[in-house]
Amino acid sequence: MEITCFLSKYRKRISFNYSKQKLLFDVNPDLFSSFAIDKGTYHLIDSLRKNNSIKYEKILDLGCGYGIIGIFLKKINPKSEIHCIDRDALAIEFTKHNAKLNNCPIKVYSSLDYQSIKDEFNLICCNYPAKAGINAFKKFIYNASTHLKSDGILAIVIVKELLKDFENILTDEIRVIKKFQSSGHYVFHLKFNKKIEFKKDPYTRNKVKYEIQNKKYELITAYNVPEFESPSFTTKAIIKLLCEIPKNLTICIANPNQGHLAIAAVHYLNPNQIILNSRDLLSLEYSKKNLIKNQFTKIKINHSTSMKSKADVLIWNLGNNIEPIQFEKQCQEIKKIYKYIIIGAQKSKINQLRRAIKPYKQAQEKNALAVLIKTIS
């Protein structure tokens, strides 16, 4: 049984007409550029036709979003082999969906930067995110060289605010062969004189102390993942209800962020296993890393938008984007799977969802509220 937010979170269909291609893209409000095609993507695609040295046999769309660049390049180069990757499971779902919508056979799979990449490409394309940090920026650029053929090209678009960082990243081993400028973006086509690998961890932000009932834990936190300094009020409210759950069960934790909630579940419940469930590969990587760091190793990873798992307990940090109608449908399904369900979010959001929840018990922390649902007597 699969519970997914895919269809219910479909926003609208975007038309993309360029270079005699008429493409359609279904989009989602939780993905980048969900209202219209991003201008940076336009500039990147437009730059490619101005560089006759590019070979299109094998192409990587790095951070594919809902698939615009990879699908477009496959349409204009039908013999090319296209790989689309993203760290977000929702992006992967939508890229696969849009590839079918446009009758476009491409390879789509999850990867945190280049971690799942084993191939070499003629072209790597990337619409680089503005807030990923300087070390991640270095890794995206430098490590492209380890996945390009000898004459391969990295085509990258950045917002103008990243120009100084980009210029500081350049080395003698990197050649800028084309540069294009618009009002808000720069596009660069790069070649590498040799392979240059950035080996430093680009994601770690800090080490933080975390205390539960006078027992001290340490976590390593990541940039661009919530709760990088301390657990949120939502997590704290959820933790107050953990004592209502029997021990030694299998627990699924949806949206684990840095891992505070998973460590609290280990502390209070001594679970047989923890299943970490998230759209975000980076959150999964750090939650798992922090569990292992604190001597818990019975871990399973579920990189998905669905809530299905073979567990007794679901602990779900909702966040703030879920819609009441969508949630009601999901709640009816998860009640068929789990014996105990703890759901946490802002109090106002939980109050919108009360008709579907019907809580057995609840706990509050500041503006956050957590509720316990028991599906067994």
Can you give the mean pLDDT? 92
Strand content: 25-35%
N→C terminal distance: 23 Å
**Strand line-up of the largest beta sheet:** 5-4-3-6-7-9-8
Q: Could you please say which CATH topology of the largest domain applies here?
A: Rossmann fold
Question: Largest sheet, if any?
Answer: 7 strands, mixed
Derived from helix and strand composition plus strand pairing, the structural class reads alpha/beta
List strands and helices in order, with pairings.
Elements: E1 12-18, E2 21-27, H1 39-48, E3 58-62, H2 68-76, E4 81-86, H3 89-101, E5 107-110, E6 121-127, H4 134-142, E7 148-159, H5 163-169, E8 174-181, E9 185-192, E10 204-212, E11 215-222, H6 233-239, E12 250-254, H7 260-269, E13 273-278, H8 281-293, E14 299-303, E15 313-317, H9 324-337, E16 340-346, H10 347-352, H11 354-357, E17 361-365, E18 368-374
Parallel strand pairs: 3-4, 3-6, 4-5, 6-7, 12-13, 12-15, 13-14, 15-16
Antiparallel strand pairs: 1-2, 7-9, 8-9, 10-11, 16-18, 17-18
